[in-house]
Every structure is written in C-alpha cells, then in structure tokens.
Amino acid sequence: MDGGTPPPGYATQQLLGHTLVVPAGFVVSVFAERVGDVRMMVLGPGRDVYASQSAEGRVVRLRDANGDGVAEEVSTVVQGLNSPHGLAFRGDTMYVAETNRVVRFDHPDAAPVVVVPELPDDGGHFTRTLLIQDDRLYVSVGSSCNLCDERDRRRAAVVRYGLDGSAETLFATGLRNSVGLAAQPETGAIWATNNDRDNLGDDLPPDRVNVLQEGGFYGWPQCYLPGRNNPEYAEYRGCDRAVGPAVTLPAHTAPLGLVFYTGSMFPAEYRGDLFIALHGSWNRSTPVGYEVVRVSIEGGQPVGEWQGFVSGWLEGPRRVLSYGVGRVWGRPVDVLVAPDGALLISDDEGHRIYRVAYAGAP
After folding, report:
1. What pLDDT sits at residue 317?
2. Cβ(171)–Cβ(212) under 8 Å?
3. Is 324's pLDDT higher than 60?
4. CA 167 to chain centre
5. In 3-state terms, what secondary structure has residue 143?
6. For residues 72 and 75, what is the distance between their CA atoms, to the nearest angstrom?
7. DSSP tag of 46
8. Could you give the CA distance from residue 45 to residue 28 in angstroms, rounded to a whole number?
C-alpha cells in the first residue's frame, strides 16, 4: 500500500505533513522523536521502553509517566558501546548485544559484565540480536557477506548460550541475516525474520520469516528455498533438506523486528497475530517495504497471506532513496507491544518511535 486511495477496510491519516494508510479505526501518533538511530526495543523495569541507538553507541530509556502515549523523558542508560543492537531483560538485569560481544548490566550504574566474548565482527551484517527464552540466551549473528562460505561457523546462524555465556550451541544455521527474534506465546517456538541474498534480480529470492528448529538448516548460502539452489552452488545436493519458511515476503523488503500481539487494546481478531517491520529495499528498481505488516496466527501457525498494517513512509516516484529519486521519510526497524496495548514502531530514518492505537470502529 502507498499513500494513495486506501483499499477497502483501510483509511488514510495525516501525520507530520505525510499520509499514512492504516486499518480503519487505528490512529498513528509520535511516541518519541529525535531519538537518533533507534533500532531494537524492549520493555524493562517499571514497564519503561528501552531502545538501542546503534550509531550512537547508546541504550536509552523512554518513560511515559502519565500514560498519555508520549514519552516525556528520554534518558541515556549506557553509552560507549560498540554498535549496540539487541536488548533483553532477565529481571532487572539488562543484556546488550554489541557487534563483537554480549554484555550484561546488573543495575543501571554497574560496569558491563562480558557474557559472550569475541563474537565474529569482520565483514558485513554487524548487528546482533538477542532473545531470552526458557532461561537461555539466543544470539543471531548475520553472515559476513552477500553469498560466501563462512569460516566462522557462528556466522549466518542463531547461537544458543546459557545466561552466563556457557554451553555455546549452534541452534539453527543457514540464516543469512536474521535481525528479528521473537517467541510465539502459545508454543514457545522461536520465530526469526531473514533477509536473503542480493543480485538475483528484483523478485528473487523472497525474504522470509522462519520458525526455528534446533539443528535446522535454512539454506544459505547454497539454497534460497527448499529444493532451490543458488546459481553459484548449482552442484550442491542438499537443498531438499533445507527448512522452508513459515511466511514469505516480497524480495528485498528487508524484514527486521517482529512481535506477537499480546495486548488487549486492539480488536479480538488481532490477539496473537504477528507484526513485522519491513525496513525497505535499497537496490530494487521499484522499491518495496517501508511498512509494517500483519500475519494472522491461529493455533500457533500462520493463516493466509500477510496483510498491510501501516504504510506510507515511501512517497512520490517509487524509486530507491539511495539513488536520490522519490522520498522515504521513515524506515520501520522494530515493533513492540506497549504496556497499554498500543504497538510501537521504531524508525531509524526519521529518528522517531511511532505509536499505533485503536480508537474504535469508524
């Protein structure tokens, strides 16, 4: 969807001089602005929102003390970090994934304690994402390249550790760049976004969301789907054993953060559904993404095709921003269910966090 005539069931809304498209009855507002290179978000002590600012090397806390849907206070919690990205809490202890390690802070004024040292930090895909599930720490480490044979087995994988950094285990492999991790509330299964390879044209391969299986191989670099070899690995004979996606998305949409809706503000049909932030393409002749989409979930499984939820951050001629044509005024990175049930969306292009609330049937 773009900012033109909305499809049935959707409405347009003006925000900051731009037009967004949302399902009828929903309203988008600004939760926080001037928050720099804001990336991943998590709820922490006191139900405050914590967010990483990778370029600035900081983690900030955003507090909406009066519950009006606007963060009155944005304060730095820790700084001087190496591209902090993934965040997770265990009680009051905050875990932070830097490019080269995972550290924890046992209280706000504490020095960092190194939990996982010496993560691979050469090459591309420098962000690291965290998830704590069942008293274990899951760390996503993207590939160092578009397509290559990695020397470090932790690349293009999700690696599992004990909360103290012990018992390193390759949990899932063949994941080129899984920026988002989320646990499905009903089943406890870990779902992960994946940004697939470039240079196969505008429409291949699809980006995807995977349900991670312990020991599962998801294809990269040899395969882009089960049974589909990358041309550079035409002689490889193992693509049939690659695990297929739970959700397929258009090529180059760049899915990043994802969250299952656990709030009570939205209508009942949204409960348990999956929201995915699509950061947007950078090298496609006709750009795609730059929106947040929804996937219906029933019994812990996706049902039907993905649907648009919030779009309109891409305006004008649909060309790639990096080529200087068209206009992108926002790039969704992460999604988070706020304590009041609203959906928060981080945006590292506009340096804002948006809040999506349900205002009732139109």
Report:
1. 52
2. yes
3. no
4. 26
5. coil
6. 10
7. G
8. 26
3-state secondary structure of 47: helix
What global pTM score does this model have?
0.95
Cα 207 from Cα 276, distance rounded (Å): 12
Instruction: Give me 122's structure tokens.
Output: 């050469």
Cα–Cα distance for residue pair 4/12, rounded to 1 Å: 8
Nearest alpha-carbon partner for 354 in 62, 91, 47, 76? 62
Cβ atoms of 212 and 136 closer than 8 Å:
no
Q: How far is the C-alpha of 47 from the C-alpha of 45, rounded, in Å?
A: 5
Cα angle 84, 90, 93; round to 5: 65
- Distance CA(159)–CA(85), nearest Å, equals 16
Token match 């959700």: residue? 247
pLDDT digits (tens, 9 = 90+) for 24-60: 999 999 999 999 999 999 999 999 999 999 999 999 9
pLDDT grade for 323, boundaries at 50, 70 and 90: very low
Give pLDDT, residue 6.
85
| Percent of the residues in the chain that have a pLDDT greater than 70, as a whole number | 95
Tokens of 225: 């789907």
Q: Which two tokens mark 219? A: 């294809």
Dihedral, 226, 203, 23, 327 alpha carbons, nearest 10: 140
Question: For residue 320, what pLDDT is reported?
Answer: 41
Q: What single DSSP character describes residue 6? A: P
What's the rounded Cα separation, in Å, for the pair 254 and 213?
A: 22
CA nearest neighbour of 122 among 87, 94, 148, 88: 148
Q: What is the pLDDT of residues 233-250, one digit of tens each?
A: 999 999 999 999 999 999
Residue partners of 85: CB distance under 8 A and separation at least 6: 39, 40, 52, 54, 97, 98, 99, 127, 128, 129
**Burial call 347-357: b when 16+ CB within 10 Å, e when fewer:** bbbbbbbbbbb
